Recover the amino acids of this structure.
């Protein structure tokens, strides 16, 4: 069975239209249609059916697409395995949220360059919600992402847990909050307070909602910002409260309040596509970041 034809079917199951498949693969729409018609002849069963002006997969088409995803991943794994004993080399395209890149990847560049001079990096700052599209477009090889223990994510790509960091509340100076949130009732003083969320990801909103749900109310998110520096500036200006990880340098600038009402940590993960988890260059980048995460001196807020 031709892999290009199988890949066209897998892409159609993922993207839904011939036009989208053509854009993703670089083939014309007519070429994609011909590949799928040939695949049907090879399979001996109908894989597609008309649905208005579009086509959709038949049950047999969906089953073959599911097998196709596994087959293509296995082929990639086989190709990578042939080079697994090579010295790490080549371009590694890395996506990551700002803290992962600034605090953990950039400090490893000198050591990485000395140990593996043939490895080159291309960095793409991104939030966790953005990395799937980058993987799907084959724009990245490795991603560093995060989620929260109270707001876990189901990662589409192969995850490795790198660290757990406690979360704290960041509150304006002079806030009437106690020094520690020990019970849900301690959160009640924030019932009418504005919250600050992330402008590019919903995880912080959901974390605030689940924390406040323990006290029986819904937080009011007023401001949204991607930069932690701006988030803390808003807190210092009395514009609201937010949650921060204790390893963020910005926690030194603001009053922070730990909470014990629920186990709340930010988890840092690395992600790679299935079939590339043994690629030496991928592994060495992840290993250097993991080593730096574990050796980094914790920030004492």
């Amino acid at each position: 069975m031709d892999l290009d034809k199988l890949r066209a079917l897998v892409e159609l199951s993922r993207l839904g239209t011939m036009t989208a498949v053509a854009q993703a693969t670089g083939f014309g729409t007519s070429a994609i249609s011909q590949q799928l018609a040939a695949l049907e002849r090879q399979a001996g069963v109908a894989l597609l059916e008309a649905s208005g002006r579009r086509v959709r997969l038949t049950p047999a088409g969906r089953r073959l697409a599911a097998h196709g995803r596994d087959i293509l991943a296995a082929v990639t794994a086989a190709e990578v395995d042939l080079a697994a004993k090579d010295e790490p080399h080549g371009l590694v395209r890395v996506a990551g949220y700002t803290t992962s890149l600034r605090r953990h990847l950039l400090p490893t560049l000198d050591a990485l360059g000395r140990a593996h001079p043939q490895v080159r990096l291309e960095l793409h700052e991104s939030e966790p919600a953005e990395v799937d599209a980058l993987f799907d477009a084959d724009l990245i090889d490795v991603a560093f992402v995060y989620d929260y223990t109270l707001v876990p994510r189901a990662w589409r790509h192969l995850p490795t847990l790198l660290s757990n960091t406690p979360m704290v509340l960041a509150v304006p100076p002079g806030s009437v909050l106690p020094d520690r949130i020990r019970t849900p009732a301690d959160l009640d003083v924030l019932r009418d307070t504005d919250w600050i969320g992330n402008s590019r990801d919903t995880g912080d909103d959901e974390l605030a909602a689940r924390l406040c749900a323990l006290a029986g109310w819904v937080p009011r998110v007023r401001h949204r910002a991607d930069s932690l520096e701006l988030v803390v500036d808003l807190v210092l200006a009395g514009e609201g409260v937010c949650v921060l990880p204790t390893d963020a340098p910005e926690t030194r600038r603001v009053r922070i309040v730990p909470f014990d009402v629920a186990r709340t940590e930010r988890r840092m993960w690395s992600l790679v596509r299935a079939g590339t988890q043994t690629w030496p260059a991928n592994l060495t980048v992840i290993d250097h970041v993991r080593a730096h995460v574990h050796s980094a001196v914790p920030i004492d807020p």
In short: The chain has a mean pLDDT of 90. The first helix runs from residue 3 to 15. The radius of gyration is 24 Å. The longest strand covers residues 158-171.
